[in-house]
Structures are given as structure tokens and as C-alpha cells.
Amino acid sequence: MSFSIESKIIEPYLVLSQSLAPLRLSRWQMFKLVVRAILYSTLPRVFLFGTFLSLIVYGLSRKIWGRQKREPDHGLPIVQRNDYHFDTIIAEGKQQYPNKPFMAINKRYRFVIYPVGSWDEFKRIPEQTASVMSFQHVCNSGNWSLVGGETHELVKTITAELTRSLPARVPNRQEDAKITFDTIIGHCSEEKGFNLLMTSLEIIAKINACTFVGRELGRNQRWVKAVIYSPLFVYMAVTLLNATPGILRPLLRPLYFLPVLKNYWDMKRLLKPKLDKDIETFKGASDKRKLLVPKPDEDLPFTQFLLSRYTEAAATIKQLVTDYIQVSYTSTPTTASALYHALWELAQNPEAADVLRQELKEVMIDGKLPRTHLQELKRMDSFLRESFRLHPITRFTLQRYVKEPFQLCDGSTIPPGVMAVVDAQEINRSPELWENPDKFDMDRFYRLRELSGNDNRYHFVTTSSNSPGWGDGTQACPGRFFATSTLKIVMAHVVMNYDIRLSKTAPLKSTPLVNGSYAPDNSVEILFKSRSSK
Quick check: pTM over 0.90? Predict the structure, then answer.
């Protein structure tokens, strides 16, 4: 393709000057027309040539310098497959390297898989050395998605103030559950079908929103939809980004995350009036400590909890909006997944409903749950933990992004930049730990708790080497008490007010995803029928 001055500049000028002579254009106007004509005729080819050249440069750079950009040598064996999940890779790795760490690499991610024997040592690694939030931040493009960027003030608020408020908030949240079910499910004199996944998401999104942002905004359908769509948009953006060649990611990243950012802008617009009012109330209070005491007939003062921990300079609208987005993001999909699987197991095991209903009748007074952390519901606690054991949201636990190099007692040294995990399925499905590990047994943990000395063990919220779902150590899930309370309140409402069953009896099919998590089966339909009030 030659670029001729005569054909590209002189000829267009002569043609234009003769054609446009009657218009009597100035030389400057004529010059602009010529330039525009040249650009329109050459830009498409220049763009194609530039794109082609960029791809060649990218390919050569991968060929020449690719090895230099790989992570430092960790001395571990590598198991690699061109799969979009980790299940086969980990099965092969454990067969080849039993009880030893190895590097597992699939189509998009590379994780160091540590054996369960490293649990106690692994959980004690300090956050500044290896962080679970940094793991989530890296896996989910946290600078754009906000995932994994939670401040210590937010984490402490969830761990302390939110958890302490739960007993007093049980009546409010029980009322929230009733209104939510009346809105979504309603009274079903005959069996009525619902998509189990989307129904679980909407139920949890609404009930949690009433706690965090108050009942007025929490029942606003625009807010609820934004909360539900948030993790879906992030997952789609991250998936597209991971499939894009590295050289094009800076260019396409804003496009991929545009739905995420638009969703966050909508959430900010809905939140701002509430936050402005909360900040004004907090600043004008003579005794701010009184604002931090939850009141039975008022919304939870979550904004005030945050303001009491931040410095005045740090407590900006932007920071508070980010906190609300993050707490909504982290609390909704995980709890909804747990509810999805608990309802599926309840529908599969109708005899369990009678057991749970009897336990609730013994604990409830006039249909009201006690103002506690609901540990009295031992059979339900065991039911939820067993469902959580069989149906985790991800196959990995103790997920860490390594910031500083460290060495474990097995002699392996992990360099910075590596993502390390422990395989939770090795615990959840262990025949050495559990009898008939692939079978659902609602009383499995109830029986263990009844043994002498086990009063404080085998709870749903327990963190230990035989309970991997919440993580462990100082970086365990800070919201596990809130999630447990939510699930028990929701399950209590279902058991006391509905009979449920699946429209089709079939094994549950969860899809393993490229990052190690599991996607629930979106085709499952559940049938609700209201119970007699007698």
C-alpha cells in the first residue's frame, strides 16, 4: 500500500477546488476540506494497520519476554490443564502429589493449593504478609469493582457493632422477613412455582437491605435490583477482561466495567439523601453514644456506626457510599447461595420440616423468635451447617494473596504475587471426618454438639479445620454471625408458613467456575403452598 503525494493530496485538492469553485471558499476553508477528505480516505486503513501491528508486537513480546514476566520460581510442581474450572486439575494434583503443595493452573488462574495439614500454620499468617481481601481484590479487579477494598473501619463495624446489635434486632428482622415473603411469595392457596435462585437472591437482598439502609430504601425495588445485579455485573466484567489479551485490557477495561460503574452511580444517587440526613444527625448530636444504641422501632444506625470509627476527614460521602456498596455486595450472593441450597435440601427432605417446626414451636412465644443469636435452634443450626458443608459457594478456603515472601514448615517458600488457597472440598467430603460424607444428614452436627464437652463446637458459625466455609483465624468472615441470623429467621418463616417441594426431582447440578467458585443451577423451580393457620 503506497502513499502517493500526487494521488492523496494534489489530486483531491484540484478536484475539490474545481468542484467547489462556485461556493467561493477561502483558502483556509478549502484546506480544512482537503484535510478531512484525506483523513476519511486513509484512517480506516491506518487503524487496521495499527491494530495489526499492535497484535504482532504483543505476540512478539509474549514470545521474547513472556518468561521474564512469569512469577518467581517457587519450587513447586505444576499441574496445568486448559480447563475453565479447577476440579480435574486438583484431582490430578492430589493424586500425583499427595499431602504436598502444588501449583494449579487453569485457563485463567493459577493458585498454589496447600494440603489441609497446613491449616493451623496457614491461618496464622498475618494479613500484612498474605491477605484474603487482597485475594478478592486481585481476582475481581478491585480498583474498578471495589471488591476486596474494605477498610478496617468497615470490617470492625461488621465484627463488633453489627454483631452486637443482632439479638435486639430479631423482632424487626422477623417482621422484615414477613413483609418480604408477602411481597415476593404471597399467600399460595395452591402450589405456586418460583425460580429458586432468583427468589433466594431477592429475599436476601430485601431483608439485608432493610437492615443496612433502612426499610424505606431497603424496600425500594431500584435499590434491590442494583444490589442483585452488582455481583453479576462484576463477574461478567472480570470474565470478559480475563479473556482479553493483556495489551488490549487498558483500552477495554472501562467498557467492560461500564455496567458496574453505572450500577454504582445509581446506588449512590439512591443513598445520598439518606447519608446526608445521617451525617447531619450525627454532627448535631450532643451525645453521640446514644445514637449508637439500636432502638426497637427505628432503623439500625449503620451510618452512625461507621461515622464513630472514621476520622472526620475520612468520613466522606464517597467513602460511606463505597462502604454500603461493599457490604451489600459481600452479604447478598453468599447468603443467597446458602439459602438456595438450604431450601433445596428442605424440599428434598420433607421430614426435616416437621423436626424444625417442632423445635421452633418450643422456642417461639406467640410466633416471635427470642432476642438472642438464635443458638437455641440447634436442629436448624445443624441443618444449615450440613447444607453448607455439601454445597459451599467455592471449593477453596483460606484464600490469600501473598504480599511478602514466607516459608512454611514443609520448606516451601512462597514469593510475593502468588495466590494461595486450601482445598475446602478435601474437608467437606472427607470420609475420615464424616460418616457417609456425600449424604445429607440434618442431625450430623446436632449429635456432635450433644456429646459431652462439645457445647461450643460444631456450630454453624464455628471456624476450625473441620469447618472451612467461613475461613479461620483473624481473617475469618466478619459477617458470619449476621448471615447465620438472617438464614435462621428466613428458614423459620418458611417452615412455619409454607410447605415446599421441587417441581422436578433431580440431582442438583452446580457449575464449577474458572475462579474456583460454584454457580447454582438456575433452572430449579420450587413450589410454595401456604400452610393452614390452624
Answer: no
